[in-house]
Structure formats: structure tokens, C-alpha cells
Design brief:
- This protein folds into two domains: about 15-70, no CATH class; about 85-164, no CATH class.
- It has about 160 residues and is mainly alpha-helical.
- The longest helix has 26 residues, at about 85-110.
- The protein has helices at about 15-20, 25-35, 40-55, 85-110, 115, 120-125, and strands at about 60, 70, 155, 160-164.
Amino acid sequence: MQGLLDGYKKGPFFCELMDCAAHDPAVALIAERLSQMDPAELRRRADIAEVELFNQGITFTVYSDKDAIDRILPFDLIPRVLTAREWDILEQGVRQRVAALNAFIWDVYHDQKILKDGIVPAHLVLGNANYRPEMVGFDVPLGTYVHVCGVDIIRDESGEFLVL
């Protein structure tokens, strides 16, 4: 039986599994278990997970697709282990990003300083099909315009998380 990680070469790139296993016992345990698993077993487990995700309704629809079928949200079967410190960095970054988005939208519908100062061209906002003039001056509960958003998270060259 060939192990899942046999022959794996990460090259010069940062690999969360291999680079973190050397100093994190939780990641080392995952790497050890994966090294003992054959690719067919991982595929079998991934298939089971996809069925469960679909059955639980964890899907999205691409409405521009002519078939508009439900698709399963992308899911990584191999867990990403985060330290408490990494989680704190991510939490602070996500909170900051969502606060910035809410502040931007509040400004667009109130003072419009970001448009008047030319930081964002007014035509990109005011001419956007999603701009709602009826929202001008309206205060939403708790200042929350953004209820759901995607946030880009990367690692820098030293392996530290950054929230874009």
C-alpha cells in the first residue's frame, strides 16, 4: 500500500502540513495519520463528506450557469490546524475588515467623504446597479450593512496570516 504522502515534495513553497508538523504536535499527528492512509481511502472519505454536505444543504447556486444546480461548498478534507495565536490574528483581521466595510457603506449612504475626496471614484459607486439611492441617510440597526461577506486570508513570506 502506498501512503498518501509518499513522494510528496512541496518544493520551495510553504506547506502548512509539512512545515508546521516539525514544531506542532497536533499537525504532526495529522501528517502521521495521512502518511499511513492510501489515496483511495482519502477519496472514499471525501465522497462521504460531499454526500453529507449536500444532504445537509451546505450548497450554493451559480445563477449564471444555465443549469443553475446546487453545488457543494468547496471543502478540504485535510484539517487546517490553527494555533490560538493564529486564530487571534485572524479574528482581529476579520473584525477589522468587516468594520471597514460597514464604515465604507455607511459613508456612501451618508457623508460620502470617500467619494468627495476622490479615494473611490463616485461613478463607480453611484453608477453601480446595486447602489440604492433610497438608502441615503438611512441608519440600519447596529450600523450593520454587511451581514455576510467573504474575506481573503493569505500567509506572507514568513508564514504569518494576513487578512486582506
